[in-house]
Amino acid sequence: DIQVTQSPSSLLASLGERVTITCQTSQSISNNLNWYQQKPGQAPMLLIYYATSLQTGMTSRFSGQYSGRSFTLTITSLEPEDIANYFCLQHYSAPLTFGSGTKLEIK
Amino acid sequence: QIQLVQSGPELKKPGESVKISCKASGYTFTDYAMHWVKQAPGKGLKWMGWINTYTGKPTYADDFKGRFVFSLEASASTANLQISNLKNEDTATYFCARWGTTVDYWGQGVMVTVSS
């Protein structure tokens, strides 16, 4: 199985700050990784697919990059509505595997 | 708009069975596979497998072979997850999620609590 290591597990940031979350995979998966935002009691929402593509309707404050086995989600200029849990998903091969999540809170 | 609406929370005793549903709307149900994901309290997400909504063929992740059954009511655009012989460790939120070119839309999740 492909392991996905996500960091940090929690993040305190100020409004307006730039935030970066990382997922590292145990083997190469090309660009087959998505990022999701999950708020309590709500369905996860797709933010970035295939590592760098912004899902339709999502704010351009979210962006994704990757290099080799390292994937990053960046939020430019943190807004109050960005407070949520973020996780990544590798869909290169079964079993699909997830990062452990990052809880983003306001400082 | 595309929606996956799941059934309500369940409270069950060990050894019982539960069937939870995921009703799709806003797209052609049989054009997109449906995946199932488990999130136990305080734990990460775990992929359970998926069902081909066109053929009805299910595929289960190794940890979910035996007591778990994916099924369809295609005429109702609904996917179901049935868990039999419930155990305490089945206590979790279960999500359905659509796969088009990727896993894009998710249901809101169903909390299943197993307690004697």
Q: Could you characterize what this model shows?
A:
The complex is a heterodimer of chains A (107) and B (116). With 107 residues, chain A is an all-beta fold. Chain A is built from no helices and eleven strands. Chain A is globular and about 35 Å long. The model of chain A has no long low-confidence stretch (mean pLDDT 96). Chain B has 116 residues and is mainly beta. In chain B, 0% of the residues lie in helices and 53% in strands. In chain B, the strands form two sheets. In chain B, strands 2, 4, 5, 6, 9, 10 and 11 form a seven-stranded mixed β-sheet that branches. Chains A and B meet through strand 5 and strand 10 of A and strand 5 and strand 10 of B.
Summarize the entry for a quick read.
With 107 residues, chain A is mainly beta.
Q: Any idea what the radius of gyration of chain A is? A: 13 Å
Low-confidence stretches of chain B: none
* Helix/strand order of chain B, N-terminal first: EEEEEEEEEEE
- Major sheet description of chain B: 7 strands, mixed
Cα-atom radius of gyration of chain B? 13 Å
Could you say which structural class the secondary elements and strand pairing of chain A correspond to?
mainly beta
Low-confidence stretches of chain A: none
Count of alpha and pi helical runs of chain A: 0
Record the SSE blueprint.
The complex is a heterodimer of chains A (107) and B (116).
Chain A: E1 4-7, E2 10-13, E3 19-25, E4 33-38, E5 45-49, E6 53-54, E7 62-67, E8 70-75, E9 84-90, E10 97-98, E11 102-106
Chain B: E1 3-6, E2 10-12, E3 18-25, E4 33-39, E5 45-51, E6 58-60, E7 68-73, E8 78-83, E9 92-99, E10 103-106, E11 110-114
Parallel strand pairs in B: 2-11
Antiparallel strand pairs in B: 1-3, 3-8, 4-5, 4-9, 5-6, 7-8, 9-10, 9-11
